[in-house]
Amino acid sequence: MSKTIDEINQKIKKGKAVVVNAAEITDLVAEQGVESAARKVDVVTTGTFGPMCSSGAYLNIGHTKPKIKLGGGRSYLDDVPLYTGLAAVDVFLGATAVPDEDPLNKVHPGAFAHGGGHVIEDLVKGKDLRFTATAYGTDCYPRKELSTLINIKDLNEAVLFNPRNAYQNYNVAVNLSDKTIYTYMGVLKQNVGNANYCSAGQLSPLLNDPYYRTLGIGTRIFLGGGVGYIVWHGTQHNPTVARKENGVPEAPAGTLAVMGDLKQMNPEWLVGTTMLGYGVTLTVGIGVPIPILDEDVCRYAAVKDEDIWAQVVDYSEDYPQGKKSNLGEVNYAKLASGKIAIAGKSVPTGNLSSYSKALKIADTLKEWIKKGDFLLGDPVAGLPGAESGYACKPLNERPFEK
Amino acid sequence: MISKKVVLHFPRSLVNEPVICKLVRDWDLECNILKAKISPSEEGLMVLELKGEEKNFELGMGFLEGIGLTMQPLSLDIVQDKSRCQDCGVCVPLCPAGALETDPVTRKVSFSDSKCVVCEFCVQVCPFKAMEVRF
């Protein structure tokens, strides 16, 4: 059997689409078999809610009297520096930016209490924020200074634009050294004191469509509590990573670049985040609907935690030095149990990504589609696939004469 | 036999008094010092786990109040702000007392103040600042 996205959208418009979340499809396929489930179900919704550092928003604040050229000058929102390499009143706010005077990790371990991610959350909350800028002044844009409160309601545009989100699988991080370390995978206790992972597993968008068959540029998604779109493959997209027989990558693989109007998003799903001793980031909620086009798509969407594997990586030495770890692999069911075995030791696990919130996203998207409010996007182009030869490379350093 | 965790606030005048010694010797109370610090303004804070006969415990507390210490049960002091908690779970393996747990079904994180030893690690580590210390 096969369905098209258009046929499914016709059913959605009539309020007749059968929609389940990525955990429910697993049970359905187990009970009724793939063939029956694929015929009955039109859409499977996925979700994820975790820290996604390559996130940010571009803003147009509107022209002043007299006019100012922010481009090439210095601008700040609540003391967090903005990127001003764009047009006169366009700025970019990145999730990991921190104030100029921030002590960073010079005061051990590094509090990172405030940064881009927190400002994005405050912006979406509708708070008044302090915008300050200095500019070099030109004949047409003579003004050299600006200090004003701004509010998201008054901006011309506030667009969430995330170059890399929704990682397809990630590592399990441990610390083999004898000192606690502070990483983007959280605080890792010495001597494999804990094992942190970061994935919604069987609910995760790209783990439910491992070969990116049903999604691509133009796919409409749940983003930050509102509607967004997949606009490109994300940075470090790596579709050619080794996969298990079920097609699921066993290491970090695909990524998505996503975008959407920040003004219709919700601070419940865009949360400023502090990774102690590491930095500031933004926790982003994303949900991707998977149209059940045929039995294969259904089979992939029915993947369960015990069939998704991740590599255990040492973050004290191997990861920073670019060496391969030899600590084995573990599946997400074991990780969710709270304890895994590494080299004969029982290690407690911690997830950086919230499974319960991922489920809430998948269920929210399910309701939007069932109500007929949300049509599926039919991609205008796909993402580089597993056979494309596209691979993420390390930097080949080439020093030059200064 | 009872076991209780208490937070003691020492005014400046008592910072140098060996009160623990008296609790042990005079009222036979087992004292486990979970935390002790003196602030720059020379006020002291101590988190104690006390074990002993109930009547001795009452007498010991009476002595402390009599000399001017204020105390409160530990359960008031670490608070989980459910509106900030995102139920991720990074705090769970880091709690030395097992006071944080993930429910295997709902996958939500709960905090049990009866197990908490106020090490404050969760307060530092929580990416969403959902854990607060209130003394």
What can you tell me about this protein's structure?
The complex is a heterodimer of chains A (402) and B (135). In chain A, helix 2 (22-32) packs across helix 3 and helix 3 (34-40) packs across helix 6 (295-301). Chain A contains 9 helices and 26 strands. By secondary structure, chain A is of the alpha+beta class. In chain A, the strands form 6 sheets. In chain A, strands 3, 4, 7, 10, 16, 17, 18, 19 and 20 form a 9-stranded antiparallel sheet that branches. In chain A, strands 23-22-11-14-25-24 form a 6-stranded mixed sheet. Chain A has a 4-stranded antiparallel sheet with strand order 6-5-8-9. The radius of gyration of chain A is 22 Å and the shape is globular. Chain A has helices spanning 5-13, 22-32, 34-40, 116-124, 205-208, 295-301, 318-321, 332-336, 355-370; strands at residues 19-21, 43-45, 48-51, 56-60, 74-77, 80-81, 90-94, 129-134, 145-150, 157-165, 172-174, 181-183, 186-188, 195-197, 216-217, 220-223, 226-233, 256-261, 270-275, 279-287, 289-291, 309-314, 329-331, 339-342, 345-351, 381-382. By secondary structure, chain B is α+β, with helices and mostly antiparallel strands. Chain B has 2 domains: 2-75, ACT domain (Alpha-Beta Plaits, 2-Layer Sandwich); 77-133, Alpha-Beta Plaits (2-Layer Sandwich), CATH 3.30.70. Chain B has helices at residues 19-27, 54-67, 121-125; strands at residues 2-10, 30-38, 44-52, 70-73, 78-80, 100-102, 109-111, 131-133. Chain B has a 4-stranded antiparallel sheet with strand order 2-3-1-4. In chain B, strands 5-8 form a two-stranded antiparallel sheet. In chain B, strands 6-7 form a two-stranded antiparallel ribbon. Chain B starts with a strand and ends with a strand.
